[in-house]
Write a structure and sequence with these properties.
Blueprint: E1 7-8, H1 18-27, H2 46-63, E2 69-74, H3 77-89, E3 97-100, H4 105-114, E4 119-122, E5 147-151, E6 153-154, E7 159-160, E8 171-175, E9 192-196, E10 207-212, H5 229-234, H6 244-259, H7 262-282, E11 288-289, E12 301-306, H8 313-325, E13 328-329, E14 340-343, H9 350-368
Parallel strand pairs: 1-13, 3-4, 3-5, 5-8, 8-9
Antiparallel strand pairs: 2-10, 6-7, 9-10, 11-12, 12-14
Helix pairs in contact: 1-6, 2-6, 3-4, 7-9
Bound molecules: pyridoxal-5'-phosphate.
Pfam family, one: Aminotran_5
Organism: Umbra pygmaea (Eastern mudminnow)
Catalytic activity: O-phospho-L-serine + 2-oxoglutarate = 3-phosphooxypyruvate + L-glutamate; 4-(phosphooxy)-L-threonine + 2-oxoglutarate = (R)-3-hydroxy-2-oxo-4-phosphooxybutanoate + L-glutamate
Length: 369
């Protein structure tokens, strides 16, 4: 019997481009003819040095990262950066105060972590639910704040910024874990950008940190050495053993992005894929509902309910079961919000998004009869 094709709509770790998996498989036992795997290679060998260099060069090229920014490949995930950011940057100004925009689970966790190291000011009125971005006229930024932090795409709630917050001169920090390289970004507007790789640019294990050079060197004295940007930058991310294989996979993914038109093409595709799903939600007469304000609906993660606005759990269960029978997996919403979530990262093809759209249409038709 022919195996049915699996389509992975998972939020992360997520789908990788097929050609990347093929290449990794081909090279797994013998990388580049040297007789060993990247998994077995010294992180100080010249072969691994070449992998690191080419990965960094590709990233610089794809995002046009200016020369006065350091790129680091670190362990500890996005959550590690929730600590590393305040540990390294909250001491930039005497007051040890940082401004946070809290628009979902991930920025909320980051703000909570930062409270351990200084004063945190959530700049807008508290929200009852994470379904919109508080209008900037309601923000009250702290004069003398060390930085303003926000999460560019809230993976759980499906809230995405389509603008760069105005910091009025403060250093801007962004968690781009779940929309990294899905569109162009003017890096020069940021003090620091970080992104865990396991959604749009690779597999779990490595987190990219892009930081402006003049912000390095202000770590609090209690900062663990592996999280200290100065130490890691001076050692080209090799102070401790880096996640070698994850960096190698990221290099392959970056190459794939470049060969597929770069970040401009990724943006065009992401709009096309997400529109297919939002169009069905919007034309379903309330059978499907996405609670997120249209102004900030994510292109990457689309949370929605089925049956009625607050979700009919029996219908949603059926939706997931039928999807799974069709090979469409990992569509269950995050446990904190329930319902369905379709993640449409770079590696998810237009055809795969179209297959989901077509299934949603069919499911709707059946339930409207
Ligand atoms: N930031 C965002 C936007 C995320 O989606 C996640 C995880 O899904 C994290 C941070 C935390 O990443 P990690 O699990 O690698 O610590």
């Amino acid at each position: 019997m022919e195996k049915k094709q699996t389509i992975n709509f998972g939020a992360g770790p997520a789908k990788l481009p097929q050609s990347v998996l093929f290449q990794a498989q081909k090279e797994l036992m013998d990388y580049n003819g040297i007789g060993i795997s990247v998994l077995e290679m010294s992180h100080r060998s010249s072969d691994f040095n070449k992998i690191m260099k080419s990965t960094e060069t590709l990233l610089r090229e794809l995002l046009s990262i200016p020369d006065n920014y350091k790129i680091m490949f670190l362990q500890g995930g996005g959550s590690g950066q929730f600590s590393a950011v305040p540990l390294n940057l909250i001491g930039l100004k005497q007051d040890r105060c940082a401004d946070y925009l809290v628009t979902g689970t991930w920025s909320s966790k980051a703000a909570k972590e930062a409270e351990k190291y200084g004063k945190v000011n959530v700049v807008h009125p508290k929200q009852d639910s994470y379904t919109s971005i508080p209008t900037s006229s309601s923000w009250s930024l702290t004069s003398g704040a060390s930085y303003l932090y926000y999460c560019c795409n809230e993976t759980v709630h499906g809230v995405e910024f389509n603008f760069i917050p105005d910091t009025h001169g403060a250093v801007l920090v962004s968690d781009m874990s779940s929309n990294f390289l899905s569109r162009p970004v003017d890096v020069s507007k940021f003090g620091l950008i970080f992104a865990g790789a396991q959604k749009n640019v690779g597999c779990a294990g490595v987190t990219v940190v892009i930081v402006r050079e003049d912000l390095i060197g202000y770590a609090l004295k209690d900062c663990p050495v592996v999280l200290d940007y100065q130490v890691q930058a001076e050692n080209n991310s090799l102070y401790n053993t880096p996640p070698c294989f994850s960096i190698y996979i990221m290099g392959l993914v970056l190459d794939w992005i470049k060969n597929n038109g770069g970040v401009d093409a990724m943006e065009t595709l992401s709009k096309k894929k997400s529109s297919m799903i939002y169009d069905i939600i919007n034309s379903s007469n309330g059978f499907y509902t996405c609670p997120v304000d249209v102004l900030c609906q994510s292109r990457m993660n689309i949370p929605f309910r089925v049956g009625k606005a607050e979700g009919d759990e029996a219908v949603e269960k059926k939706f997931l079961e039928r999807a799974s029978n069709l090979g469409m997996i990992s569509l269950k919403g995050h446990r904190s919000v329930g319902g369905i979530r379709a993640s449409l990262y770079n590696a998810v093809t237009v055809e795969e998004a179209a297959a989901l759209a077509s299934y949603m249409k069919e499911f709707l038709k059946e339930h409207q009869q």
